[in-house]
Amino acid sequence: MSIAKSANKTGRSVKGIFGTSEKRKAFWGRYLASLKYGFHVITHPFDGFWDLVHEKRGSLAAAHTFLLLFLVIRVMKLMLTSFQFISAPVQYINVFEEMGSLALPFLILCIANWAMTTLFDGKGRFRDIYMAMCYALIPYILIQLPMILVSNMLTFEEASFYSVLLNISVIWCVFLVFVGLMEVHDYGPGKTFIFLIVTVVGAMVIIFLILVFFSLLSDAISYFVSMYREIIFRLN
Amino acid sequence: MKTIKRILTGLCCLVMILSVAAASAEDGFSTSYTYTYDYWEDVQESPDAYRVATVIDTMTLGLDTLENVRISKPQSLYVRDNMLYICDTGNNRILEIERTASTRFVLKRVIKEMTGSVVNTFNTPYDVFVDPRGNIYVADYGNQRVTMMDKDLNWVRDYIKPTDATFDQGQAFLPQKIVVDVAGRVYTLCQNVNKGLIKYEEDGTFSGFIGANTVSVNMADYIWKRYFQTKEQRAQSENFVPTEYKNIYIDEEGFIYATTEVFSEYDLKWDKAKPIRRLNSLGNDILIKNDRFPPIGDLNWVSGAAETNGPSRLVDITVMNDDIYVALDRIRGRLFGYDSQGVLLWAFGTKGNVEGAFTGAVSIEHMGHDLMVLDQLENSVTLFLPTEYGQTIYNATERYLDGLYDESADLWREVLKMNANYPLAFRGIGRAIMRQNKYEEAMDYFKLAHDRENYGRAFKLYRKEWVEQNIWWIAVILAVVLIVPLVLGRIKKTKWEVIAHEHSKVRK
């Protein structure tokens, strides 16, 4: 998507999906730079998130990459972590279900945050929020991936070492989400905290609406189906 | 929508028909008669650990011609050596039966009265106990006493309602279950007493209560009940009182095993309900629980009010050698065997009228490894003998406890040939292999058994061995990892210095 877009912006016709060779080079250079910029973001969150959005140092392509990596690593963790530390019923796991159950809430939370903050003078666009949230997942990726390997080198008794690092990765991510939203919307810490809670409530409302919509839809469909049947029956 | 429902109903019917067809094997035993639970709490069918050998009832004992009184509402069984005692509650008598051969039971005595007491007969006796010297104890429920007689049925003494202030004097003394320890102390379980077991010294004096259930109230519960419920709701809901025990058994070491049926079903898997307990002399629960779930009977159940729904209600327990205990579930007529570590060995039994099924299972006893189950509605005792599979499990456990690890592993391998879904066998083999210092192989077995602790132990040793073997490689890699960046840094630094030097030259 973003590749095609960046090629389109120049006004020329798109040549293949990767555009001309200079365009391709420019895109890959920018992509790699924005990937690398992730390291700066997680170590210097306050400056990092500001520049990510306002100086355009991040890219959507990199954000997608981080989200995808997060999902893949989550599944890898369930599958490959030593059985001493994780008791996932591997025989029942559906990879796509597992990924969807993380990606969908993630997107709903982004939408809820955007919907709420737009009403209360948040500066961030949806694209900025999404990017900040994706960049905030980097510590999870960086710590959990090696920990899968480490878990296979530790024994049950050494579990504390393992769990401490896992907790650090999660706490780090939460902290980054907080700072990211603060910088993106140009809020103070108090307001950010309130809007984190509001976002969760908003996400619940969205889920509720989705469920209501689908149940009404299925009712409506079954209504029309039965009406159709009735007509066919009368005609015969 | 309707079509979908129809298809679903059709599928359900098909599945039911197929499962009925699959459920009965050639020998008449249903294939799912014996089962175990795997790590994921799923039922795994297993070969039968026990088979019905014979059923003892009024006819086989010859009671219909001898006394012309059929057994009625029997409440308890007791076994001492090769003698079997049935507490024939409905007829106020005790039946003494001798086991002369594996499946041959001969009625020896019908104990209806004794000599020497003011009241020589029994009134709805609920339980019987016989000590090694042959003294017979009867929980004489209707006469509000526990009575003791010698082996020739001469009355010795009564254990009556304690006159102590700790016992509510307005209440009747209704003993339901009794056990006697080696020192002659009598422990009774009484109806409507929730302070634990009533304990008497050998001479009949009351010496206190032991093993009361502790009451645990959580804050939310308390506030809810105290401030938010109406008076009527409060009257209907459970009180904060300790639960009563259902049955007791004393093992060879003098520890009392108790079962209870009063608990909230959500507490079971978290080991808060403790339906099976092993009480020490202070009354504390010291049952060993080393499995994923505590011993609670069935791990899966359907909630609801129907008769066969809900968690297992363990009505009786019996303890064999090596601390293997078997609990009896009255809800679904099932027997659950656990080893000394609280690991489920097998479960079997069902509700029904055929052999090996029960309608009103009420008491269980063992003679060696043979099991006897009393059914209070069928008025019969079912004798189960272990199959080759069941016996091999016992032998393997025994060998292991005797320290014969290799022999035990061989027996576990035999068990695996009969049932490949048996975690205990994998663990047993793993332990034996580990003792031969084959850690990597042992790890595979422990992994199959989902045994984290032993896997950790084997892995630790394997890791140590691996590091010792590959120490040179590790040293080389470490050196490379540490030295290469150092050298690179050095080179970069000199490069910078050269550039800086040249710049300074230009400025001048």
Describe this structure in words.
The complex is a heterodimer of chains A (about 240) and B (about 500). Helices cover about 80% and strands about 0% of the residues of chain A. Chain A is mainly alpha-helical and about 240 residues long. Chain A has one domain (about 1-235). Chain A starts with a helix and ends with a helix. Chain B has two domains: about 45-385, TolB, C-terminal domain (Neuraminidase, 6 Propeller); about 405-470, Tetratricopeptide repeat domain (Serine Threonine Protein Phosphatase 5, Tetratricopeptide repeat, Alpha Horseshoe), CATH 1.25.40.10. The longest helix of chain B has about 35 residues, at about 470-505. In chain B, the strands form seven sheets. Chain B has a six-stranded antiparallel sheet with strand order 2-1-22-21-20-19, with no helix packed on it. The relative contact order of chain B is 0.09. Chain B is of the alpha+beta class and about 500 residues long. Classes of the chains: A mainly alpha (about 240), B alpha+beta (about 500). The interface of A and B includes residues 84, 92 and 157 of A.
What is the compact description of this entry?
The complex is a heterodimer of chains A (about 240) and B (about 500). Chain A is mostly helical and about 240 residues long. Chain A has helices at about 1-10, 20-45, 45-55, 60-80, 95-120, 125-135, 140-150, 160-185, 190-235.
Secondary structure layout:
The complex is a heterodimer of chains A (236) and B (508).
Chain A: H1 2-9, H2 21-43, H3 45-54, H4 60-80, H5 95-119, H6 126-135, H7 138-151, H8 159-185, H9 189-235
Chain B: H1 2-23, E1 34-37, E2 43-45, E3 50-56, H2 58-61, H3 63-66, E4 76-80, E5 83-88, E6 93-101, E7 104-111, E8 125-130, E9 136-140, E10 145-149, E11 155-159, E12 175-180, E13 186-190, E14 197-200, E15 206-210, H4 219-228, H5 231-236, E16 247-250, E17 256-259, E18 276-279, E19 314-319, E20 325-329, E21 334-338, E22 344-348, E23 350-351, E24 357-358, E25 361-367, E26 370-375, E27 380-386, H6 388-401, H7 405-418, H8 423-435, H9 439-448, H10 452-469, H11 471-507
